[in-house]
Write a structure and sequence with these properties.
Elements lengths: L1 H37 L13 E2 L12 E13 L6 E3 L2 E5 L5 E5 L5 E4 L15 E5 L2 E8 L2 E6 L14 E3 L13 E2 L5 E3 L2 E4 L2 E2 L10 E5 L5 E5 L24 E2 L7 E3 L4 E5 L3 E2 L16 E6 L5 E6 L15 E7 L2 E9 L5 E5 L9 E5 L13 E5 L22 H9 L15 E3 L13 E2 L4 E7 L3 E3 L1 E3 L11 H9 L1 H4 L23 H10 L13 H11 L10 H4 L13 E3 L19 E7 L4 E7 L4 H5 L14 E3 L3 E4 L6 E6 L5 E6 L9 E5 L2 E10 L6 E10 L2
Parallel strand pairs: 1-36
Antiparallel strand pairs: 2-42, 3-4, 4-5, 5-6, 7-8, 8-9, 9-10, 11-14, 12-13, 13-15, 15-16, 17-20, 18-19, 19-21, 21-22, 23-24, 24-25, 26-27, 28-31, 29-30, 30-34, 32-33, 34-35, 36-37, 37-38, 38-39, 40-41, 41-42
Helix pairs in contact: 3-6, 5-6
Amino acid sequence: MRKRTYIIASILFIILIGFLAWYMRRETSHAAANAADKTWHSYLGGPHRNHYSSLNQINTANVKKLKVAWTYSTQDTGEMETNPIIIGDTLYGMTAGAEPFAINAATGKKYWQRKGKKANDLNTSRGLAYWSKGRDHRILFTHGQWLYALNTETGKTIPSFGDSGRVSLKTGLDESAGDKMVSSTTPGTIYKNLIIMPLRVSESAGAAKGYIQAFNVKTGKLAWVFHTVPRPGKYGYSTWPKNAYKNPNIGGVNCWTGMAIDRKRGIVYVPTGSPAFDFYGGNRKGRDLFSSSLLALNAKTGKRIWDFQFVHHDILDRDLPAPPNLLTVTHNGKRIPAVAQITKYGYIYLFNRVTGKPLFPIKEKSVPPSPLSGEQTWPTQPLPVKPAPFARHTLTKNDINPYAKNRKELEKIFRHSRYNGPFTPLGEQSTIVFPGFDGGGEWGGAAADPSGILYVNSNQIAWCTNLAPTDSEKKMIHLSLGHRLFNENCSRCHGADLKGHPKSGFPSLANIRKHYSKEFVTNVISNGRGMMPSFDQKLSSKQKQAIVAFLFGEMQKKTTKVKVARSKQSEKEKPTVPYKFMGYNKFLTEDGYPAIRPPWGTLDAINLNTGKYVWKDTLGTHPKLAAKGIPKTGSQNYGGPLVTAGNLLFIAATPDAMFKAFDKRNGKLLWMTRLPAAGFATPSTYEVNGKQYVVIACGGTKLGTPGGQSYVAFTLSK
């Protein structure tokens, strides 16, 4: 009897211990979840990239009481696109020079800020990643071609990570990437002990191939590589010409926007870019998988699970502009784990995130052929039936800006240009690109509410450009070396006359010697700045010096023929394509406003359960036009929205430097304030000591706006 009682008691004791262990794990899990809800642990708010917070202390009833809580100056003026993260009571952000810092999230008091070795080493950064295990807490960020791991408490590099705290982003790429531009603008995605990295590469012929790489967070060792230009015997290889992966003319197919991850299922969702050269594909005939696609990969191994290609044989740089959103929707009475992807050309695609099956029908529709000899465009492109596009797709003479002083001139340009929808390929004749190269949707991305509503801000302006035969470079035979190199590499953005396109974000260089030193200009050419890529690997030291000499009016006495001056590479080895791109030129009025009728910027709410729009409004103002009685034009915008459980949508993004809060249910404007510089970044929100804050980086510089150096946090006044 005693033995039986002892056995029963032992069983009950084991059950009790098991229950208590389960309960403690449950409470710990809930506490961690609640802590995560109160902070902003990851880029764009979490692994699902939904820009969403469950905080509701700041809500529609009291948002008008928001006041500045603190301002932190990075002392590094320039473009900042960072979405900061908040861990506990510490905020981690990036300066305009792509250096990390840590401050108190409640007061803005500095803990530490890392200083770069080069004062002018400017690289745009959209954020950083956080990883922890036990007492090991790390910040991971990129600078140039390097991925760094830092101690969160001190800001010091962790020597055991890679080579003295850093790893090259070229580690898993082809050997040919050794002398090519490779960097990362967007933070990596964490999965267990891995960080999966996006890459930024050149968009010209000879660019590095942008393979997807995963590194061990603790050691820095390469864990796996996914080849976005497939190798022989692999799925997708036949969609390219034979041995395309070896072709030096073919590069790109990189993920520059960042990724989303379903950690429960172990699936990482990777949006990819177009192949390089971006605007001519005669040397890569075929669909070109996995370019301009969404890849669902096994996060542990990098193996492909499913994929969908949005643009077949992309020759318009219509690649995916932002990380996808992972959310749950209701279709046919069932709750479905979904992945939504916005696009530059204004469509939203929605898939079952497990199977890849589209949740709204997608139909292949005919698109215009290329007028160029040697090019072979894909005859159709896949377009969803729902939702309707959030960007306009039609342009006629009647769509020319009715307020333009030079409207007749603009109508003439339009009449002599080609435009037949968003997939009109470039030719030697002037071509209208609409939606423009900056969208539609852009890198700021969309916000997703748990109810299935997607919020997306959009650009609605046209660009105008064309391609020209590469042979036309022979006309430069009598120019100085610096002048010729400038024309080959810089004139597409800054103009052959050096006057640039300031309203498009490309500054004049005509008087550069009055404002900057030769050392500064050389450094910018080497390292890039803002939208300008690095030319460090493309140009030799002597070639960079020659360009600087030309810009500073020091014309070389000796002229050099093209074949001698080009490169040490033989003509056989040098990447070449028969056409060159003539520049990112916005279609503008003589006053610098978009040449088409408003709206020029919009903010939309779309119900992904039904595919129908909830509301739609303009975003941004032009004060000078408003003063003339021309209201609600909207404006170009960069950076995304933030959505909260307080029924609010926060967004800056516009060049007027306004920060606004809308009622997310109906789009009604509830609050706005002027920032110290334009906030071309996505805001974050968090709670510290029972108080909710909203913070945004104010960097400016895009669209001709003044540069900034501040992070500004807001909270409710008492």
